[in-house]
Amino acid sequence: MSRDKSRQAPDIETASTMEDELDFLFSNFFGSHYPTLYRKELSWRPPTDFYEIETDYVAILELAQVGTDDVSVTLQDGMLSIRGNRKAVPPAERRRYHKMEIHYGPFEQRIAVPGDIDMENLSAHYKDGFLEIRLPKKPASSAGVVDIKVE
Fold first, then answer.
1. Which domains does the chain have, with CATH numbers?
2. pLDDT value for 55
3. For labelling, which of 5, 48, 102, 137 has a CA lying 20 to 30 Å from the CA of 83?
4. In this structure, are residues 75 and 113 in contact, taking their beta carbons and an 8 Å threshold?
5. In 3D, which of 103, 52, 100, 105 has the Cα closest to residue 80?
C-alpha cells in the first residue's frame, strides 16, 4: 500500500488557522462557555476583527475595562500576539447571576499576518474599549529595470 502524500501534518500557520476554526465552531455550538476540556490554556480570546486595506493590516480587539498597562502587543516572525488581563472587580454585594458572558482573567489572541510589514511604523491605539493595531505594509519594490554593472 502506498501512503497518500497529501495527508501530511499541517505547518504551524495551518495549525493555527485550524485551531481558530475549531474555536469558531465550538463557540457557535456551545456559546462563549464551551467545555474547558477542549481549551489547552486557561485564557479567553477577545472578539477580534482583522482586515487588510491598501496600506495597512488592521486588527481591532474589543477590550472593555482593560487598562493599557494590562495589555502587551508583539509582532514576531509574522505572528501578531496580543496578551493581557481583565481584572475582575470584587462585587460590593452578593450576586446571583442569571446570565454571565463577560470574561475575566488572562487573555491571548494570535493572528498570522499574511504579508511583509514596515516594522518602523507600527501603531496601537486604545479608545472606548477597543484596541486598534495598525501594521503598515512594506512598500512593494519597484518592478522597473535596474542596470547591474558587471566587474
1. 1-40 (no CATH), 46-136 (2.60.40.790)
2. 96
3. 137
4. yes
5. 52
**Residue written as cell 472587580?**
89
pLDDT digits (tens, 9 = 90+) for 6-36: 555 555 455 556 666 776 676 666 655 444 4
Give the Cα separation of 84 and 70 in Å (integer): 5
pTM over 0.85: no
Specify whether the backbone of 18 is left (phi greater than 0), alpha (psi in -120 to 50) or beta.
alpha
**DSSP label of 64:** T
8 A C-beta contact, residue 88 and residue 104:
yes
Which pLDDT does position 36 carry in this prediction? 45
